[in-house]
Design goal:
- The complex is a heterotetramer, with two copies of chain A, one copy of chain B and one copy of chain C.
- By secondary structure, chain A is an alpha+beta fold.
- Helices cover 35% and strands 38% of the residues of chain A.
- Chain A is built from two helices and three strands; from the N terminus they run βαβαβ.
- The longest helix of chain A has 16 residues, at 51-66.
- By secondary structure, chain B is an alpha/beta fold.
- A nine-stranded mixed beta sheet of chain B has the order 2-1-3-4-11-10-9-6-7, with helices on both faces. In chain B, strands 5-8 form a two-stranded antiparallel sheet.
- The radius of gyration of chain B is 17 Å and the shape is globular.
- Classes of the chains: A alpha+beta, B alpha/beta, C alpha+beta.
- Bound molecules: adenosine-5'-diphosphate (ADP) and magnesium ion.
């Protein structure tokens, strides 16, 4: 099965990249954009088909490696 | 070098080799070098444009992605379309790719880290305004300093680049062999620099302005800057005047 | 005010009472927060101030000594060198990339706030061994963070040092040094002069970053620290680059009275320090402070440590021009207050006073302590080294290889190739030599920079170790052909409330002071980082010395690599039985003990004079100081550092009754290896003799092997080291990467 | 409304970052991971409530700025 991990900066943590994109979009005329946050997307291809097991394992991967939980938070989505 | 030659050097927020280019062009090569602010929508009178290295807009999103929308880039595009010479170094190369003035795109270095060191380059085409002072096959030593110099183009584009001799520099060993080990960043076909179809726009990752001055121990970069200045002097690359109503 | 709140703010009951007496009333919470950061060890230097006064700070060329954002020295041609070093140890342990990045951002601001354009960075790093995944994560994260910030802003990182030792497992050190150049007649200071002048805020918007960062840096680690998440600051080098250009342009236009960066304790420290230096007051309106987050309290706004911000005092009536220049550079700016003449820092939020304290109460009136100091009980044992328990090595080739691959000695290319060390096109001598050399455009001159400290020497004998750090830094500059001008220090120690740590600190400061006097090098700036302690374990005393030297002629610059076959190899200085505290003893015999190598400051000064004269007379082709790993490693480094690939050497050493390992790997101080054209040999011998410096010809640059023989006292000669340069080169250059590539990744 | 833009390298383009993560995961013992791709996640906060309009506008942003379609592909999700 596949896992999609979305990693974003925690609220309150400065996101210079998001600010730069926001600024660029508005100077391109997209003035209806109020805020931009840039994060990471990690797609994993897993050998298992056990949903609960996969969820626990991906969570462990996030905590140990994929996310820097000091400044980032993550969300996991699983799909066949 | 005649004092009448004028090179314009673009300055984006986050450019950081702008002053280095100015020093190399003016103090070392003896031409005139003027800064052009990114907010300008018209170029002043210049004979060639250098887009210097650095981290325009912090390299946020993708290298060169935001800078290419600066007003000055529209003016540079018109200048190039009229035949003017444009040299993009490092971040300048990345901006030219994002702007579509050169084909392909830049990916992160294979090692995923920034790399600053001397590399060897083989001159693949010495018949360009940027390399006319070099010999075909000559091996130059130039420094690189980038995190995203892993050049990519699709197969069709690569074939076209090769067929038309648009690959100007390849990473090589000190004896001029193009090998995977000599490739510092994973770039396709060891490509370090290319020109556009018309041959008047060069993008390269290594920094000729960092090795133009004998004091820094290497003058190979002079060859590229000297080629550029001599090409201007030859008069063959003077941008053709564009009438206002012709600009669509 | 409750006891709990006072304790939470890191103040003692007595300190709180002292504040109440100063103010003549109780404080509100906002004011408590302000005192808590300003009276913290980090901002107030309360445990170190008394002792730092011992450091010599004067010399005719010193324009600004300690007390400002950075030190300033005259380098002629109307120019001044501006430099300082700072620690970012605790933030880098919590989040290595951002911690190190913001450390670079902070030191850069200290330099450009003085009106200087930054031209070089150095980084001094200490980590636990790389066989632990956590240490690999910290080390690579820190290096990436320094690269990420320095490369983007376009200031070359041209040198530094890295040591690995278990003692830094839970408390790595990240110290960064920055050098800038300013016009001598246009140095800016952090003074809020002139009542009525507008106070402006420029730079990034304020968020809830790093609130209590300053108190955190003054606190030991415990298990919970790694979860102190909300305090992590994120650096934005792009914004800093714009801020840098905007500030330099504001200074060029002569619009400013004073300027200071907002570092630790942000708006609070910058405003009270500027007022207090000038003997004025400042009134702030917080509602005008640009903010990133809604509903921040005055407490938060005042204590936020958001990065990339500056506080300016502009000339009256010129604030419009300031705002225009900021606009040109896309830098946020706002008038947030004005200078007053009542000596108070008065803070309002929408017109309502939320804090009102004398500026000097926050700064000058902070307490100072002479804490108890005493040598630790283990010191004697530590200094005892029974040499009979250290067998002399039979295979010296193996020892040399072990040393060249020890991460502390191994080639540091893995580190400095991640740093743009060439941007600005001034780097005449790149990282990988004793000191980096930067030419000064528009003049014939150049500056050399280095950072040094052997903390193993310092734990064995804090006085000698610290003095040796000064001597080594100066020696490194001299090897590059530069005359030492001045130094900055970054004193990293454990918990000053422990007598043994205070003892180490006091001795180290005395060592620095004496070495400075002997070598005539003033201290112009510095930084103290205490509480480098985790779970009761303190780091080794690590007083890092950053030093700047001047070359009158850039062409004189010398690097450590051999230059040509046939050159004679000379050793200036004398080798003794100095095995205590050596890398050899540590890496090969697993002992960290003994007395560190003896340092004789007069001999050191003589050695440096001789080498400088030789360089100035154009007699020297390469120069390299003997440091960790001793003579054998120094010879190998010179051999392997030759510009176009290794150049071998054939060398014979006279035994003089010494142990083989002392001769090859001992770390006797005050030694420099030169290579010279054979024709110049005698001239150098004459120079050395005049100054009483021992000078011996060791051999010649020749072939593709490193061959070191020892001639015993009866005249017999045996070859003890014989390896191809290629083999040594591969090992030396590959060792750090190999150490990083082993084992699993992850940051758990 | 909010838009979530997922940007990934096109199939066929080597993703060294993904490879590095894959390698790190397997040396941490997560051997059940067959492949990893690393991409970008851009979250936009839009002033509008008009879904169709928003979709078209975000698509235009992607084509012009957010993605480089020579090497990347993008997916847009909209939510209130
Ligand atoms: N952290 C670092 N950053 C940049 N350069 C470094 C770093 N560590 C070491 N170097 C460079 O590697 C070389 C050797 O360092 P070191 O062994 O400390 O030399 P020395 O003992 O002569 O001071 C020096 O040129 C130094 O500047
Ligand atoms: Mg050293």
């Amino acid at each position: 099965m596949k896992a999609k991990v979305s990693i974003t900066l925690k609220r309150g943590i400065l996101d210079p990249q998001g600010q730069a994109v926001l600024h660029a979009l508005s100077s391109l005329g997209y003035t209806g954009v109020k805020d931009v946050r840039v994060g990471k997307l990690i797609e994993l291809d897993l050998a298992t088909h056990d949903r609960a097991g996969a969820e626990a394992e991906v969570k462990a991967m996030c905590e140990r490696l994929l996310a820097n939980t000091i400044i980032e938070e993550y969300r996991i989505e699983l799909m066949e | 070098m005649s004092i009448s030659l004028r090179v314009g050097i673009l300055v984006f927020p986050g450019s950081n080799c702008d002053r280095d280019c100015q020093h190399a062009v003016s103090q070392v090569m003896g031409a005139k070098a003027d800064f052009i602010w990114h907010k300008e929508s018209m170029l002043p009178h210049v004979d060639a444009v250098i887009i210097p290295g650095g981290f325009s807009y912090g390299d946020y999103l993708r290298t060169g992605a935001i800078a290419r929308f600066s007003p000055v880039m529209a003016a540079v595009t018109r200048f190039a379309e009229a035949g003017g010479l444009v040299l993009g170094i490092c971040n300048g190369f990345q901006i030219l790719l994002e702007a579509g003035l050169l084909p392909g795109a830049m990916l992160r270095n294979r090692s995923l880290s920034f790399l600053c060191k001397d590399v060897h380059l083989r001159v693949e085409n010495a018949d360009t305004p940027f390399t006319r002072r070099c010999k075909p096959g000559q091996v130059l030593t130039l420094p690189i300093a980038h995190g995203e110099g892993n050049y990519y183009a699709d197969q069709a584009t690569l074939a076209k680049l090769k067929a038309r001799n648009q690959v100007i520099f390849r990473y090589c060993t000190k004896d001029g062999e193009v090998t995977p080990e000599a490739n510092p960043n994973g770039s396709l076909d060891n490509i370090a620099g290319i020109v556009n179809d018309a041959g008047n726009i060069l993008g390269l990752m290594p920094h000729p302005e960092r090795c133009a001055d004998a004091l820094l121990g290497n003058e190979d970069g002079r060859l590229i800057l000297l080629s550029l200045l001599e090409a201007i002097k030859s008069g063959r690359y003077a941008p053709k005047p564009v009438l206002a109503h012709n600009v669509s | 005010m409750t006891k709990d709140l006072i304790v939470q703010h890191g103040l003692t009951e007595e300190e709180y009472q002292k504040i109440v007496t100063l103010l003549g009333r109780e404080l509100n919470l906002t004011e408590l927060g302000m005192f808590s950061v300003m009276w913290s060890e980090h901002c107030s230097y309360k445990s170190s101030r008394t002792f730092l006064k011992k450091l010599p700070t004067d010399a005719p060329h010193v324009i600004q000594g300690p007390g400002e954002n950075a030190g300033v020295v005259d380098i002629g041609d109307g120019l001044a060198a501006v430099f300082k070093m700072e620690s970012h140890n605790h933030p880098s342990f919590i989040e290595p990339y951002q911690g190190a990045a913001t450390g670079v951002g902070g030191i850069l601001r200290d330099i450009f706030t003085m009106g200087a354009r930054p031209i070089a960075l150095l980084d001094s790093l200490r980590f636990g061994p790389l066989d632990s995944p956590k240490n690999r994560y910290l080390f690579s994260g820190v290096v990436a963070g320094i690269a990420g910030y320095g490369n983007c802003i376009g200031v070359p990182t041209v040198g530094g040092e890295v040591y690995f030792n278990e003692i830094y497992n839970y408390n790595p050190l990240v110290n960064v040094f920055c050098l800038g150049i300013a016009r001598k007649d246009r140095i800016f200071r952090g003074w809020a002069s002139g009542a009525g002048n507008p106070v402006l805020y420029i730079g990034a918007k304020t968020g809830r970053d790093g609130i209590h960062g300053a108190t955190m840096a003054s606190d030991s680690f415990d298990e919970g620290s790694e979860s102190m998440r909300p305090t992590v600051q994120v650096g934005d080098p792009f914004t800093e680059k714009l801020l840098l250009e905007a500030c330099l342009e504001l200074m060029e236009q002569d619009l400013l009275v004073g300027i200071q960066d907002m570092g630790a304790a942000g708006l609070t420290s910058s405003s009270c320090e500027m007022a207090s230096r000038a003997g004025t007051g400042i009134e702030l309106e917080l509602a005008n402070v640009p903010r990133r987050e809604p509903s921040m309290t005055p407490y938060e706004v005042l204590l936020s440590e958001s990065q990339e911000r500056m506080l300016l005092v502009a000339k009256s009536g010129r604030e419009g021009e300031v705002l225009d220049i900021c606009k040109k550079w896309d830098v946020d700016a706002a008038v947030i207050g004005r200078v007053t003449n009542d000596g108070f820092l008065r803070v309002k939020e929408k017109g309502v006073v939320v804090a009102e304290v004398p500026a000097r109460a926050l700064t000058d009136n902070a307490p100072t302590y002479e804490r108890p100091a005493d040598a630790p009980a283990y010191q004697d044992a530590l200094q005892t080294l029974p040499l009979e328990l250290v067998p002399e090595p039979k295979d010296c080739n193996a020892v040399l290889e072990a040393l060249l691959t020890s991460p502390t000695i191994a080639h540091k290319g893995w580190v400095f190739e991640q740093y743009d060390h060439m941007v600005q096109t001034n780097t005449v001598i790149r990282p990988g030599s004793d000191a980096a050399v930067l030419r000064i455009k528009g003049t014939d001159k150049a500056l050399a920079v280095t950072a040094d400290c052997n903390s193993l020497y310092c734990v064995l004998n804090p006085y000698t170790g610290a003095a040796s750090a000064v001597a080594e830094a100066a020696r490194n500059l001299v090897c590059a052909g530069a005359r030492p001008l001045a130094l900055t220090d970054c004193l990293n120690f454990g918990n000053p409330e422990r007598p043994d740590i205070m003892w180490q600190f006091i001795l180290a400061v005395e060592g620095i002071a004496d070495a400075c006097k002997a070598l005539q090098i003033p201290v112009v700036s510095g930084n103290v980082s205490f509480y480098n302690e985790t779970r009761g374990l303190s780091i080794y005393p690590t007083p890092i010395i950053g030093m700047v030297g001047l070359l009158d002629h850039v062409e004189q610059a010398v690097s450590q690599g051999f230059k040509a076959e046939g050159d004679a190899i000379l050793l200036l200085g004398e080798t003794g039985e100095d095995l205590g505290g050596t890398e050899y003893l540590r890496a090969v015999h697993h002992r960290e003990q003994g007395t560190p190598p003896v340092l004789n400051l007069e001999r050191e000064a003589a050695l440096q004079r001789v080498v400088l004269q030789a360089v100035e007379q154009g007699l020297v082709r390469s120069a390299h100081d003997c440091a960790e790993g001793g003579l054998a490693v120094a010879l190998a480094e010179s051999s392997l550092s030759a510009t176009n690939g290794p150049l071998g050497a054939e060398v014979v050493l006279d035994r003089h009754g010494l142990r083989r390992d002392s001769l090859l790997f001992g770390e006797s101080q005050s030694r420099i290896i030169l290579s010279v054209k054979p024709a110049n040999r005698e001239k150098i011998e004459v120079l050395a003799r005049q100054d009483g410096v021992p000078c011996s010809v060791l051999g010649f640059v020749r072939g593709q092997r490193l061959m070191i023989s020892i001639r015993d006292d009866r005249g017999g000669t045996a070859l003890w080291i014989d390896r191809t340069c290629d083999k040594l080169d591969t090992m030396w250059r590959g060792a750090l990467r190999a150490a990083l590539d082993t084992g699993e990744g992850g940051h758990a």
